UniProtKB/TrEMBL annotation, chain A:
One Pfam family in the UniProt entry: CO_deh_flav_C
Protein name: Xanthine dehydrogenase family protein subunit M
GO molecular function, one term: FAD binding
Domain FAD-binding PCMH-type: 1-231
Family annotation (PROSITE patterns): FAD_PCMH
UniProt keywords, alphabetically: FAD, Flavoprotein
Keyword Flavoprotein belongs to the record: yes
Domain of life, per lineage: Bacteria
């Protein structure tokens, strides 16, 4: 790990002013916020990230950053809530099971104790060619250097949202639920506060895979708002090789509002298969207002993956993705709520 | 559904007491010092810069930024590294796991080869400095594995020498009315012990003490002495505990000499802890295999022809060979047998021993093929094993000293509920989960090598046992304690055991499952010599004081040497040199249980049954329960034995479903080189494992009647799971690990 300056501001405003910096996109800014540190410190030890200054926000005791609250507009979650704290939240488990389960099924208890949900949505890819600086080809680390994953080991890489420059999968779980439920990201930065629709937070790799989010240097996620009524008929289905403590080969965050057999509203977020938290709008569109049969789900799920671009080792995700959607929706439909 | 097995099994016939582990309290209270924990005054810290290509030369190497960092003492590269003597590979009579000498020239020979070593005041500075070394390579296209351009096939002399043959395979095969001809493959795997690979070197004048996890301290110390040109008497290795070894810590690697010589050069102790990912290239691993199995049977299921052909990957530098076909063809009665092994040399580091090196990959092939044959015969797979069970070698005709395979099958099958199985694939399910049941044979040869031991008994009834054997967590301390206590008539709690130190009398490698049989026999012999001082029968503990007084001494110390039948005192001389044996090179070959030529056949056996559940849509594979029954002669301690079997079956399950090192075929590099992406089983993967200890008496293997058990239980599991997956889905997966992608296509 390279030496860096460590700052511990006493208030959010001070933190934001300390974090003002230059850089192309948030993740490569020389100044980084330190929350739980579970991604940042790991990547600093691996020499992948080399920030010169860390602004430790983990001890800020600002109400804006803490806790879970509900009002007429919906649910609000402070960004410094730990994953463990929310995974143990009974109200979330009852009214937003998709959100609670996505946290409960992520990482390990030790990591959930440390990691904060604001930083979690910015968790960086597990692509091994990105995480190891001895590989000379990685467009995400070194723009324009190439992509070793294209002809390397790519079993866990993305099939949706990929570009010729990058196929790295977004690794997290929590973001899928937020994407599905149309969450809004509250951001505070040098230019003041703004709101970002969750679907606009992450940027597909395109020509610039090193720019992963629409956050600007110095901007801080302060919370998430999930608008509208609760989603008790919702769940997170994570499919992985190992039963626990593994990244998803595919995952589906689904939420339903049913009238009889008909899906009046339907939300599907996908993980493990895409470069960003993926909203399956094609499948949603085919199923909204229709009876939710296995055949109909299967057809819609396969349509979502018609745009998939697999590589040598991740071809199975084109089958696994639709299977995961199908299983998740059938299980959500069968929930007793 | 969760019914935990009683943690302390009752001893059955021919089993010792199930006393708690010797070092249990120390371990759960964090007292043991592992190699890197050893407190050292003012150490320096080393960190390697490792290569980013698998083959080529270093075109430029700029260490100026690293050298300029405050706290950096020295940066070693091929331009200034201390010379080391070339020492032979372990399989050709030497000590090394890999004969490629890093930093000897500017060539890069495999992924993660050492290109520089930074020594600094702290670990953090050393690692940061290593990151600032700038290397450019003149890279060449490497050969990664089977089928890679540039990979070279070779049939080593040893493979030809060890090839086994009976009758006329071609003739038997052509006549067989029922045949299975199938190809299987097993992946690269790395040991990934939780204790990282570490070395600390401390010079005191011309005396070197070093701390390093080792499964064979005499070999590691002697090998290092030879490499750096120092009298072996002046090299002392201290390592009382090994935090998981699995074969990876059995043989000297090239890192140790670099650390020792840097410590001498800089005049201060130097400590190195390999980063987990560096262990992938700088220690050994289980090489990938490809196999062809041909089984021919008559219509009643009797085998009439069996050929097992294997291909294994190794490095350019060394011809490491696993060669498990020599053992698989001893499993069942069959008149016509043939084997072959071919090495494929690629741009890789040299592979090595990993838990049950030959049996793990090759029994997967055989036991999968046996299941395929049972399907082809429309016969119960247990009955197929019964029909072909044998009490003698099909090659040499020599009898097994004992073999309780079918007793294991019958007890495990009954406990598992096998009779309720509908043999038709896809016939059992619950909700959205397809259910499959499968079984397979486990086996491991009874290996032994020479050992010495020293025991000191004092008049207060306390004994100290000393032998440079090793405890990697398998229960060796406890076994030595119990063996000595039994022969000396003492309560085990009165016996202290010292191991894992090259200043102690030499013991065997902690490999080949031979510690209890070998070191235990030496301890038993030494204890017998003490008993002889009292006329052969030990006085009762309360009478010891008087007995000592009558002898006019306050303590009795005896040293004993023991060697397996068929060997002689030269085996002890070889042991003092840390040689793997008086003759053979490979782990466990000293008294090869399955050697032909009329020598008695010695092996432990087991039968494993598993249930798999596979989701009909997403095809995740889960193993809700496993049952294993094992017979291995005298069981010194049923508690630690059960623990070994539990761990073995869990390892076997992970090996079948999870464990694989991904090798980038273009770059010949290990890609998932960390334990987040290299998956081993976690608790959630292991709901229920039942272990049955089948009593077995063997009066011939050794004086204790002990067979090895550490490498037995992981052997049958992978095939049992593959067979269960077939039963659940109708799909035969012949390529490990069995992952959902293989069931989705």
């Amino acid at each position: 790990m390279r030496p860096f300056t460590y700052e511990r501001p006493k208030a959010i405003a001070e933190a934001v002013s300390m974090a003002r910096s230059e850089g192309a996109g948030h993740v490569n800014a020389p100044v980084q916020y330190l929350g739980g540190g579970t991604t940042l410190l790991d990547l600093m030890k691996l020499d992948v990230m080399q920030p010169t200054r860390l602004v430790d926000i983990s001890r800020l005791d600002d109400r804006l950053l803490r806790g879970v609250s509900r009002n007429r507009e919906g649910l609000r979650i402070g960004a410094l809530s730990s994953m463990a704290e929310l995974a143990d939240n009974g109200m979330l488990a009852r009214d937003y099971p998709v959100l609670q389960q996505s946290l409960w099924l992520a990482a390990s208890q030790q990591l959930r104790n440390m990691a904060r949900v604001g930083g979690n949505v910015l968790q960086r890819t597990r692509c091994p060619y990105f995480r190891d600086t001895s590989y000379s080809e990685c467009n995400k680390r070194i723009p324009g250097s190439g992509c070793a994953a294209m002809d390397g080991v790519n079993r866990l890489h993305a099939v949706l949202g990929v570009s010729d420059k990058c196929i790295a999968a977004y690794p997290g779980d929590w973001a899928q639920g937020l994407a599905a439920l149309d969450a809004v990201v509250e951001v505070l930065g040098p230019g003041g506060a703004r709101s970002v629709p969750f679907g606009e937070l992450h940027r597909p790799p395109g020509e610039t895979p090193h720019i992963e989010t629409s956050l600007q240097p110095g901007e801080l996620i302060t919370g998430f708002v999930v608008p509208g009524e609760p989603w008790p008929r919702s769940l997170y289905r994570k499919v992985r090789d190992r039963e626990s403590y593994a990244f998803a080969n595919a995952s589906a965050a689904v939420a339903l509002r049913m009238r009889g057999d008909v899906a009046e509203d339907i939300r599907i977020g996908l993980g493990g298969v895409a470069t960003t938290p993926w909203r399956a709008r094609t499948a949603e569109g085919m199923l909204r207002g229709k009876p939710l049969t296995e055949a109909a789900i299967r057809a819609a799920a396969e349509a979502e993956f018609a745009q998939a671009r697999p590589r040598e080792h991740n071809r199975f995700k084109v089958a696994l993705g639709p299977a995961t959607i199908t299983r998740a929706l059938l299980e959500a439909k069968a929930m007793e709520v | 559904m969760l019914q935990p097995t009683p943690p302390v099994p009752q001893p059955l016939e021919n089993m010792g007491q199930a006393i708690p582990r010797y070092e249990a309290t120390a371990k759960v209270t964090g007292q043991p010092l592992y190699a890197a924990d050893e407190p050292i005054a003012r150490p320096l810290y080393a960190f390697f810069k490792t290569s980013g290509v698998a083959r080529g030369t270093i075109a430029s190497l700029d260490v100026r930024k690293a050298e300029a960092m405050p706290g950096v003492m020295k940066v070693y590269t091929h331009r200034n590294a201390p010379p080391r003597k070339a020492v032979k590979h372990i399989m050709t009579g030497g000590y090394m796991s890999d004969t490629n000498i890093p930093l000897a020239d500017n060539r890069v020979r495999h992924d993660g080869d050492i290109v520089a070593m930074v020594v600094a005041d702290s670990y953090e500075i050393a690692r940061d400095a290593a990151n600032r070394i700038e290397v450019r390579y003149a890279a060449q296209a490497p050969a990664a594995t089977f089928g890679s351009p540039g990979a070279v096939k070779k049939v080593p002399e040893q493979a030809q020498k060890n090839a086994k043959k009976a009758g006329d395979f071609a003739a038997g095969w052509s006549r067989a009315p029922v045949k299975v001809d199938a190809r299987y493959s097993t992946p690269t795997q790395h040991h990934n012990p939780i204790e990282l690979y570490a070395t600390t070197a401390v010079w005191n004048g011309d005396q070197l003490t070093f701390y390093e996890p080792s499964q064979f301290v005499y070999s590691t110390a002697n090998g290092l002495a030879e490499q750096i040109g120092v009298d072996p008497a002046k090299v002392h290795l201290v390592n009382p505990y090994v935090g998981g070894g699995f074969g990876g810590k059995g043989i000297l690697t090239q890192r140790t000499a670099l650390v020792a010589l840097a410590a001498r050069d800089l005049g201060r102790p130097v400590k190195l802890v390999l980063h987990r990912k560096q262990a992938y290239g700088l220690t050994t691993y289980r090489a990938e295999t490809r196999q062809r199995v041909r089984l021919g049977a008559d219509r009643n299921g009797k085998l009439v022809a069996f050929a097992h052909d294997g291909e294994e990957v190794t490095s350019r530098a060394d011809d490491y060979m696993v060669g498990g076909v020599e053992n698989t063809v001893e499993m069942y009665a069959c008149p016509n047998i043939a084997t072959s092994v071919t090495l494929v040399k690629a741009d890789r580091n040299t592979p090595g021993f990993m838990r049950s090196p030959p049996e793990t990959p090759y029994m997967f092939g055989l036991e999968s093929a046996m299941d395929e044959l049972a399907v082809a015969l429309n016969m119960d797979p247990v009955e197929l094993r019964r029909i072909n069970d044998t009490q003698k070698s099909p090659i040499s005709g020599a009898p097994y000293t004992s073999r309780s395979l079918m007793q294991c099958y019958d007890q495990a099958a009954a406990a598992f509920g096998w009779s309720r199985r509908n043999p038709r694939p896809l016939s059992m399910s619950q909700g959205d989960w397809l259910i499959g049941w499968g079984c397979a044979t486990a086996t491991y040869p009874t290996n032994m090598m020479a050992s010495t031991a020293r025991i000191r008994l004092t008049a207060d009834g306390k004994a100290v046992v000393e032998v440079a054997a090793h405890d990697m967590g398998q229960g060796a301390y406890t076994a030595m304690q119990q063996i000595a206590a039994k022969r000396l008539g003492l309560d085990p709690r009165q016996v202290t055991v010292r191991m894992g130190d090259s200043a102690l009398p030499p013991g065997p490698v902690a490999g080949g499952s031979m510690t209890t049989a070998s070191a235990g026999s030496a301890v038993h012999t030494a204890a017998g010599k003490i008993a002889a001082r009292f006329g052969g029968a030990m006085p009762a503990p309360n009478d010891l004081d008087d007995a000592f007084r009558r002898l006019g001494v306050t303590q009795i110390e005896e040293y004993a040497e023991w060697w397996p039948p068929g060997q002689g005192p030269q085996a002890v001389r070889a042991l003092y040199k840390g040689s793997m044996g008086g003759g053979g090179g490979e782990e466990g070959e000293q008294q090869e249980g399955n050697a032909g030529g009329g020598k008695p056949m010695m092996a432990a056996f087991g039968a494993e049954f598993v249930e798999v559940r596979i989701h009909r849509l997403t095809r995740e594979i889960r193993v809700p329960r496993m049952t294993g029954a094992f017979a291995a002669g005298h069981i010194v301690n049923p508690r630690t034995a059960r623990s070994q079997y539990l761990g073995g079956m869990i390892w076997g399950m992970a090996s079948a479903l999870l464990e694989a090192t991904e090798v980038d075929a273009k770059r010949a590099r290990y890609v998932n080189d960390n334990i987040a992406e290299y998956l081993v089983a976690v608790n959630a993967d292991v709901p229920q494992v039942d272990v049955i200890l089948v009593p077995e008496v063997d009066t011939k293997v050794n004086p204790l009647g002990v067979k090895g058990i550490g490498e037995l239980a992981n052997v049958g599991t992978a095939a049992a799971i593959a067979n269960a997956v077939y039963h659940a889905t109708g799909k035969r997966i012949r390529d490990l690990p069995i992952t959902m992608d293989k069931l989705l296509v």
